Amino acid sequence: MLVRVAPGLFPPDLVVQIKALACELPAKFGLPLSRWSTDDLVRQVCQSGLVASISGSTLWRWLHQDAIRPWYHRSWIFPRDPDFAVKAGRVLDLYARQWQGRALKDDEFVISADEKTSIQARRRKHATQTCRPRTPMHVEHEYFRCGAWTYIAGLDVHHARIFGRCESKNGIAPFDRLVEQVMTRPPYNDARPSSGSWTTAQSTVVPEPLSAYEISILDSSSCMPRFTPVGSTKSKSISPLSNARF
């Protein structure tokens, strides 16, 4: 029997039943879904005969106000290194312009670097036609595949400067070219000389005294920040990413 009631007059037991349904996996109802969306849940509530109709905003408000929300989930990486907090703290200190309890000087920089791999390069078969009065821009639908490229970029964390380059693949040599791109332009080429040299991401030693440039690398496979002299800060996410969908 379908229940049709005015908005705001839903009985409490009905709300409880809908919340219980939201806690179930969609596969239980024969749906090829890993988790519910609001629209999917509204559809299932109506098909189950709990209500004749209900708005997505009403359903979402009920679920969002509940004290326990098992339909929420948060992605995260479990730290496997017992010293993770100490090592990650070094990365956070650099972002706060601190190192071993002292503030970084004006000629010390923190560069955050990362790469985006497998970018599909496409070349349109015909040139794009620019827009004109009452005519939109025309972009050719067909294209030639030009392989997969890697975009490597560095961000000066405290001065909002971005350096980037496209490479046919990633690795030490392309990263060294990004390093040269940064280090050969002011103000970085005028910084205090480093006590070390550019090294690979596998180095774990920070020489003394502190270099004018620091690399702090949070390895994505082991979730361990690593440090080398002269370079940039390359940090994978060290804080969980929230996903509020069902």
Topology:
Blueprint: H1 12-22, H2 38-47, H3 56-64, E1 73-75, H4 84-95, E2 98-99, E3 102-103, E4 109-124, E5 143-156, E6 161-167, H5 172-183, E7 213-218, E8 225-229, E9 233-235, E10 241-243
Helix pairs in contact: 2-3
Overview of the molecule:
There is one protein chain. The chain has helices spanning 12-22, 38-47, 56-64, 84-95, 172-183; strands spanning 73-75, 98-99, 102-103, 109-124, 143-156, 161-167, 213-218, 225-229, 233-235, 241-243. It has 246 residues and is an alpha+beta fold. It has two domains: 12-71, no CATH class; 84-238, no CATH class. The strands form three sheets. Strands 4, 5, 6, 7, 8 and 9 form a six-stranded mixed sheet that branches. Strands 1-10 form a two-stranded antiparallel sheet. A hairpin with a 2-residue loop joins strand 2 (98-99) and strand 3. It starts with 11 loop residues before the first helix and ends with a strand.
User: From the helix content, strand content and strand pairing, which structural class follows?
Assistant: alpha+beta
Helix content: 10-25%
Q: Uncertain segments of ≥5 residues (pLDDT<50)? A: 1-7, 194-246
> What is the approximate shape?
extended
Mean pLDDT: 75
Whole-number count of domains: 2
What is the overall number of helices? 5
Number of strands: 10
Sheet with most strands? 6 strands, mixed
Radius of gyration: 27 Å
Strand content: 15-25%
The termini sit apart by 27 Å
Run of helices and strands: HHHEHEEEEEHEEEE
